[in-house]
Amino acid sequence: MPGTWEVRLSGSGGQGLILAGIILAEAAIIDGQNVVQTQSYGPAARGGASKAEVIISQEEIDYPKVDRPDIFLGLNQESVLKYMDGCKDNALAIVDAGLVNHIPPSKARVYALPITETARKQVGRELVANVVALGALSALSGIVSRESVTTALLRRVPKGTEDMNRKALELGFNLGEQALAGAQAGHN
Amino acid sequence: MSSEPRLVQGNEACAEGAIYAGMRFYAGYPITPSTEIAEILAKRLPQVGGKFIQMEDEIASMAAVVGASLTGVKSMTATSGPGFSLKQENIGYACMAEIPCVVVNVQRLGPSTGVATAPAQGDVMQARWGTHGDHPIIVLTPSSVKETFELTVRAFNLAEKFRVPVILLMDEVVGHMREKVILPEPGELPVYDRLKPNCSREDYYPYRADWDKAPPMAFFGEGYRYHVTGLFHDESGFATEKPEVIDLQLRRLHNKIYRHLDEIITYHSEQTEDAELVVISYGGTARAVSRAVKLARQEGRKVGIFRPQTLWPFPEEAVAELAGAGKKLLVAEMNYGQLLLEVQRVAAGRCAVTGCLQTNGELTQPETILNKIREVYEHAPGN
C-alpha cells in the first residue's frame, strides 16, 4: 500500500520489544496515522527470538502482519537470523552492534549501533535498550515525529522512571542522527 | 471512555465492551491467548462495582457464571480451546435452563493444548455442537478490535433478550492485535436489559412463554421462588417426562432463536454484486482475505467478500443466494474445513465450493489466498 511502513522489531523475550512496538504505534496515532500492532512469541517469557510488528499507514490497514519489512530492528543474534530475511530492498535495518556478530547477506541498509552498550554505559540500565533502539529507529527513519514518540513513551513508562527513559530516548536519537550523518558523508 | 483515538488490544476491547454492556460478574480460569481479558477485568470490575472471581478451573467458572446470571447480573467468562471443552457441560445447562451468559473463546491451535500462542479457528463446530443434545446457540465472531467491542456488547444483548448462552468466538490474531480505535461513548450502542415478570409472585410461572419467545426472568433472591433444572421441565420449572411437554419445550427453545434470525444474523459483504467468485471468511483470516481480494481485483478478477459476523445460526439465506446466483465460493479459514461443510450443505451442489485451509499455527498470508483465488477462478466449473 502507498504511504505504508511495515516495521518489525525483534530480539529475545524480555528485551521489551512489544512495549517498544506499542510506543511506536501510539506515537504514530499522535501523528494522525492508522496503525496495527501484532506480536509473535513462544511460551517463554525470557530468551529465544520474539518479534513485535507495527504497520503505520495513511490508509486503512487490512492484513495486520508485516509481509516485507521497510524497517527492521534486531537486538540479538537469533532474531536477526530468524526475522531479518524478507526485508524489502533498501529497507532500513538496525542491529545491536554488541550482540549481533553475524549479519546475513541483505539488500537492506544495515546500521550496526551500540544500542545495549549505550543503555548500559550511559544510562546505567540495560533494561532501556528498547528505548534507545526506539530513538535510533525514529531518527533514522523519520516515521514518527520526535515529539510524538517522546509523548508516547512518557505516557507508557512507570512513574519515577521518566527521566531515565527520556535520557535513553535522547541517546537513541543521537545514535541515529550520527549514523545518518555518517552514511551521508560516506555517500559524498 | 473518551472519543480520542487510542491503541487498544482485541482482548481489551472485549473486556471494555462487556463492561459497556453492563456485565458485572466474571468468573474464569486464565488461559493464553485469552488471559488479558481476565487481567483487565480483575482490575476494572471492582472499579464499576462488579465482581471478579478466579475459580479453581473452567468447569467451576462456568457454573459460577450460570449461578450469578440467575441472580440478575450480566455474567461472562473467557477461555481458549482447552477450557472451552471443559465449559461445555454447563453451557448445555444454561441452554436448557435458559440462563443468559456470554462465553468468550479466544481460539488457539488445537487439538488439546496444541500451541498456546498460535492462532487457529478450529472451534467453529465445537461452538455449535460442543454440548450434547439438540440445542440452539448463538455464536458471533469479530475480525477487528473495534468489532470485538461492538460484538461483545451485541453478545450480551442477544443473550439477555433470547435467554441463551452466546459464544464470542475470537482468535489469537484478533485477541492479541492492537489497533487504533475510538471506543463508543455510553449511549452510542444499544444495551438491552433482561425482561422481568410483571405478575405477582404467586402467579409467576418461570417457563411460561409464547411458542417462539423466551419467558420473562425473575431475579433469584428477589422473592420469586422457582425451580431450575437441566431436566426437561414444564412451565413451572419442575421436571417432566411427558412427551408432549418435552416436545413443546424443545420446539420453543429452537423457535425463540430460529424465528428471529433477522435480529440475530449479521454479516458484511463487499463487491459481491458483480463477483464471479466470493471468498467466505471470518475472524483474523478475513483480514488476509481483504488484502487478497484487493490484489485479485487489481488483476481484473471479479472477486467479492462475504464475512459472517454471526457464525451460528449460519447465515443460510444469504449464502444460498450467492450459491443460487452461480458464484464460485471459496471458504478461507484456519482449520480443516469446518464452516466449509456448512457452506457446502447450503450450496447443495449449485456452485463450486472450495476451501483455502491452513492449520500450521500462522495466520494465512494474502498471497496464499490470492493463489487459491486464481486457481479457483480459472479452473473451478462455473455457470
Automatic annotation (TrEMBL), chain A:
It comes from the Bacteria. Residues 13-173 form the Pyruvate/ketoisovalerate oxidoreductase catalytic domain. It holds the Pfam family POR. One of its GO terms (molecular function) is oxidoreductase activity, acting on the aldehyde or oxo group of donors. Gene3D superfamilies: Pyruvate-ferredoxin oxidoreductase, PFOR, domain III. The keyword Oxidoreductase applies. Keywords: Oxidoreductase. This is 2-oxoglutarate ferredoxin oxidoreductase subunit gamma. It comes from Desulforamulus putei DSM 12395. Coiled coil: none annotated.
From TrEMBL, chain B:
SUPFAM superfamilies: Thiamin diphosphate-binding fold (THDP-binding), TK C-terminal domain-like. The keyword Hydrolase does not apply. InterPro entries: 2-oxoacid_oxidoreductase, PFOR_II, Pyrv_Fd/Flavodoxin_OxRdtase_N, THDP-binding, Transketo_C/PFOR_II. PANTHER family: SUBUNIT OF PYRUVATE:FLAVODOXIN OXIDOREDUCTASE, SUBUNIT OF PYRUVATE:FLAVODOXIN OXIDOREDUCTASE-RELATED. CDD domains: TPP_PYR_PFOR_IOR-alpha_like. It comes from the Bacteria. One of its GO terms (molecular function) is oxidoreductase activity. Transmembrane segments: none annotated. Residues 16-247 form the Pyruvate flavodoxin/ferredoxin oxidoreductase pyrimidine binding domain. This is 2-oxoglutarate ferredoxin oxidoreductase subunit alpha. Residues 275-368 form the Pyruvate:ferredoxin oxidoreductase core domain. Keywords: Oxidoreductase. The lineage of its organism: Bacteria, Bacillati, Bacillota, Clostridia, Eubacteriales.
